[in-house]
Amino acid sequence: MKTFLAILLAALALFAAPAQAQERDVPYWASIRASELNMRVGPSRDYKVSWVYRRPGLPVKVVRVMEGWRLIQDPDGEQGWVVARLLSPDRTAMVIGTEPAALRDSPDDTGGLRWRAAPGVVGVIGDCSEGWCEFDVDGRRGWVRQGRLFGSLEP
Protein backbone atom coordinates (compact mmCIF):
# COMPACT_ATOMS: atom_id res chain seq x y z
CA MET A 1 0.00 0.00 0.00
CA LYS A 2 2.85 2.40 0.85
CA THR A 3 4.47 1.70 -2.50
CA PHE A 4 1.22 2.37 -4.35
CA LEU A 5 0.77 5.71 -2.52
CA ALA A 6 4.35 6.73 -3.24
CA ILE A 7 3.91 5.96 -6.95
CA LEU A 8 0.58 7.80 -7.03
CA LEU A 9 2.05 10.89 -5.35
CA ALA A 10 5.06 10.88 -7.68
CA ALA A 11 2.78 10.64 -10.73
CA LEU A 12 0.61 13.49 -9.48
CA ALA A 13 3.65 15.66 -8.87
CA LEU A 14 4.95 14.89 -12.35
CA PHE A 15 1.72 15.93 -14.05
CA ALA A 16 1.12 18.94 -11.79
CA ALA A 17 4.56 20.46 -12.33
CA PRO A 18 3.98 21.71 -15.91
CA ALA A 19 0.61 23.21 -14.97
CA GLN A 20 2.08 24.85 -11.88
CA ALA A 21 4.98 26.23 -13.87
CA GLN A 22 2.50 27.88 -16.23
CA GLU A 23 0.82 29.79 -13.36
CA ARG A 24 3.67 32.26 -12.89
CA ASP A 25 3.49 36.04 -13.06
CA VAL A 26 3.57 37.36 -16.62
CA PRO A 27 5.53 37.91 -18.68
CA TYR A 28 7.61 34.73 -18.63
CA TRP A 29 9.35 32.43 -21.10
CA ALA A 30 8.01 29.04 -22.16
CA SER A 31 8.46 26.73 -25.11
CA ILE A 32 6.11 24.82 -27.38
CA ARG A 33 5.51 21.28 -26.09
CA ALA A 34 3.28 19.96 -28.88
CA SER A 35 4.22 18.83 -32.38
CA GLU A 36 1.32 20.97 -33.60
CA LEU A 37 -0.03 24.04 -31.81
CA ASN A 38 -2.87 26.28 -32.98
CA MET A 39 -2.59 29.99 -32.27
CA ARG A 40 -6.03 31.57 -32.08
CA VAL A 41 -7.27 35.15 -32.20
CA GLY A 42 -9.01 34.72 -28.82
CA PRO A 43 -8.86 32.52 -25.70
CA SER A 44 -11.28 29.77 -26.76
CA ARG A 45 -11.62 27.01 -29.33
CA ASP A 46 -14.50 29.10 -30.72
CA TYR A 47 -12.02 31.64 -32.12
CA LYS A 48 -10.43 31.11 -35.52
CA VAL A 49 -6.92 29.75 -35.88
CA SER A 50 -4.52 32.45 -37.04
CA TRP A 51 -1.36 30.29 -37.18
CA VAL A 52 -0.27 26.69 -36.72
CA TYR A 53 3.14 25.99 -35.15
CA ARG A 54 4.85 22.74 -36.06
CA ARG A 55 8.07 23.28 -34.15
CA PRO A 56 8.32 21.72 -30.68
CA GLY A 57 10.82 23.56 -28.49
CA LEU A 58 10.24 26.97 -30.09
CA PRO A 59 10.60 29.66 -27.40
CA VAL A 60 7.64 31.96 -26.76
CA LYS A 61 6.96 34.79 -24.35
CA VAL A 62 3.77 34.40 -22.31
CA VAL A 63 2.30 37.89 -21.91
CA ARG A 64 -1.16 37.17 -20.50
CA VAL A 65 -2.94 34.35 -18.67
CA MET A 66 -6.66 33.54 -18.88
CA GLU A 67 -7.91 30.29 -17.35
CA GLY A 68 -6.47 27.46 -19.50
CA TRP A 69 -5.19 29.83 -22.20
CA ARG A 70 -2.01 31.85 -22.70
CA LEU A 71 -1.47 34.90 -24.88
CA ILE A 72 1.98 34.35 -26.37
CA GLN A 73 4.42 36.32 -28.47
CA ASP A 74 6.58 34.36 -30.90
CA PRO A 75 10.08 35.22 -32.21
CA ASP A 76 8.53 37.20 -35.10
CA GLY A 77 6.55 39.37 -32.67
CA GLU A 78 3.19 37.82 -33.56
CA GLN A 79 0.72 37.39 -30.71
CA GLY A 80 -2.17 35.01 -30.20
CA TRP A 81 -3.82 32.62 -27.78
CA VAL A 82 -2.81 28.99 -27.23
CA VAL A 83 -3.92 26.21 -24.89
CA ALA A 84 -1.70 26.34 -21.80
CA ARG A 85 -1.14 22.58 -21.51
CA LEU A 86 0.61 22.58 -24.89
CA LEU A 87 3.37 24.84 -23.55
CA SER A 88 6.35 23.69 -21.52
CA PRO A 89 8.16 25.60 -18.77
CA ASP A 90 11.46 24.38 -20.32
CA ARG A 91 13.63 27.32 -21.36
CA THR A 92 14.78 27.37 -24.94
CA ALA A 93 16.10 30.15 -27.15
CA MET A 94 16.34 30.79 -30.87
CA VAL A 95 19.23 32.37 -32.77
CA ILE A 96 18.11 35.69 -34.25
CA GLY A 97 19.71 38.06 -36.74
CA THR A 98 20.84 37.66 -40.32
CA GLU A 99 24.21 35.96 -39.80
CA PRO A 100 25.18 32.76 -37.95
CA ALA A 101 25.90 33.18 -34.23
CA ALA A 102 29.25 32.02 -32.87
CA LEU A 103 29.16 29.38 -30.11
CA ARG A 104 32.36 29.91 -28.14
CA ASP A 105 34.12 27.82 -25.51
CA SER A 106 34.08 30.71 -23.03
CA PRO A 107 31.81 33.73 -22.47
CA ASP A 108 33.87 36.29 -24.39
CA ASP A 109 34.76 37.22 -27.96
CA THR A 110 38.24 35.76 -27.57
CA GLY A 111 36.90 32.32 -26.64
CA GLY A 112 37.59 29.59 -29.15
CA LEU A 113 34.97 29.11 -31.84
CA ARG A 114 33.17 25.77 -31.42
CA TRP A 115 30.33 26.09 -33.91
CA ARG A 116 28.23 28.60 -35.80
CA ALA A 117 24.46 28.42 -35.38
CA ALA A 118 22.32 29.72 -38.23
CA PRO A 119 19.46 32.14 -37.58
CA GLY A 120 16.40 30.13 -36.57
CA VAL A 121 18.33 27.40 -34.75
CA VAL A 122 16.67 26.49 -31.44
CA GLY A 123 18.49 25.14 -28.40
CA VAL A 124 18.33 24.87 -24.63
CA ILE A 125 19.43 28.01 -22.84
CA GLY A 126 21.42 27.88 -19.63
CA ASP A 127 22.69 30.65 -17.40
CA CYS A 128 23.18 34.13 -18.81
CA SER A 129 25.51 36.76 -17.40
CA GLU A 130 27.48 39.74 -18.59
CA GLY A 131 25.95 39.56 -22.07
CA TRP A 132 26.60 35.85 -22.71
CA CYS A 133 24.39 32.74 -22.40
CA GLU A 134 25.15 29.06 -22.23
CA PHE A 135 23.48 27.43 -25.24
CA ASP A 136 23.07 23.76 -26.13
CA VAL A 137 21.97 22.65 -29.59
CA ASP A 138 21.57 18.86 -29.60
CA GLY A 139 24.64 18.36 -27.39
CA ARG A 140 26.74 21.04 -29.07
CA ARG A 141 27.40 23.40 -26.21
CA GLY A 142 28.93 26.82 -26.08
CA TRP A 143 28.46 30.45 -25.16
CA VAL A 144 26.48 32.84 -27.37
CA ARG A 145 26.06 36.60 -27.12
CA GLN A 146 22.81 37.20 -25.28
CA GLY A 147 21.52 39.70 -27.84
CA ARG A 148 21.62 36.97 -30.53
CA LEU A 149 19.04 34.78 -28.71
CA PHE A 150 15.27 35.26 -28.58
CA GLY A 151 14.34 33.94 -25.15
CA SER A 152 17.46 35.07 -23.33
CA LEU A 153 16.56 38.48 -21.99
CA GLU A 154 14.19 39.29 -19.15
CA PRO A 155 10.67 38.83 -20.49
Head-to-tail CA distance between termini: 45 Å
Number of strands: 14
Tell me roughly what share of residues is in helical segments: 10-25%
What is the CATH first-level class name of the largest domain?
A: Mainly Beta
Fourth CATH level, the homologous superfamily of the largest domain:
SH3 Domains
CATH topology of the largest domain: SH3 type barrels
Q: Largest sheet, order of strands side by side? A: 6-5-4-1-7
- Oligomerization state of this entry? single chain
User: Structural class of the helix and strand makeup?
Assistant: mainly beta
Q: Could you describe the largest sheet, including whether it forms a barrel?
A: 5 strands, antiparallel
Question: What number of domains?
Answer: 2
Q: What is the 3D shape?
A: elongated
- The fraction of residues in strands falls at 35-45%
On the 0-100 scale, what is the average pLDDT? 89
Low-confidence runs of at least 5 consecutive residues: 2-22
